[in-house]
Amino acid sequence: MNLKHTLIVLEEAECLADQQAVEAALDRMAEEITTQLGERSPLVFCVMNGGLIVTGQLLTRLLFPLEVGYLHASRYGSKTTGGELLWKAEFQAEVTGRTVLLVDDILDEGHTLKALSDECLRRGAASVLTAVLVDKRHVRKVEPGYRADFTGMEIPDRFVFGYGLDYDGVWRNAPGIYAVKGM
Questions:
Q1: pLDDT for 6-52, tens place per residue?
Q2: CA distance 160 to 141
Q3: How far is CA 30 from CA 7, 60, 147, in A?
C-alpha cells in the first residue's frame, strides 16, 4: 500500500463516530466497568494490536486497583477475513482464581474474543468479562446473540478503521471510527 492510497482511504471514508462520540462511549464503558469490577481488582488484558488504543484510553478512566497485561492472538494477519487463531504472545500473568477483563477494539464475529475468553477459563480464571469499543451489527456471530459484556457503540456491518481498528495495517490512529468507501 502506498502513502497516496492510504491518504485517499481516509479522505473518502465516512465518519461513523467522531472523536467526541468515541470519548463519550469510553466514558460510559468506564462507568459500567467501574460499577461491576471496581471492588474486584481485575486482571485487564489488552488484546493486541487492535485493543491498544482502546485499552490505553479506558485505563485512564478506571480509578480502582487493577493489573494490566496483554495477549496477542489474531485470525486476520494482513488479511481482511479471519482464519485460524494464531498466538503471537501468550499470557504473562497467572489468571487462576482471578477476575479477567479482555479489552479489544471490535466484536465482529467474535471468534477471537470467545477463544481468548475460553482459554482464560480453561486456565482457571474465576470469571472473564469482555469489553469492546465497537460491535458490528450482523447475524454472523460465533454463537447466536454473542455480545461483549461492555460495548462502547454498535456500528453497521461495514469495513471500519480508527481508534485501534486498522485498514491494511494503517489508520489505527485515526481519531474516530471510519467506514471505508464502498465497503
A1: 999 999 999 999 999 999 999 999 999 999 999 999 999 999 999 99
A2: 17
A3: 32, 9, 17
Q: Are 58 and 111 in contact (CB under 8 A)?
A: no
Can you say how many angstroms the Cα of residue 151 is from the centroid of all Cα atoms in its chain?
9
C-alpha–C-alpha distance, residues 17 and 53, integer Å: 15
CATH of 14-74+94-175 among 3.30.70.2860, 3.10.20.30, 3.40.50.2020, 3.20.20.140: 3.40.50.2020
- Which amino acid is present at 65? P
Kindly report the pTM of this predicted structure.
0.91
Q: What are the boundaries of each domain within the chain? A: 14-74+94-175
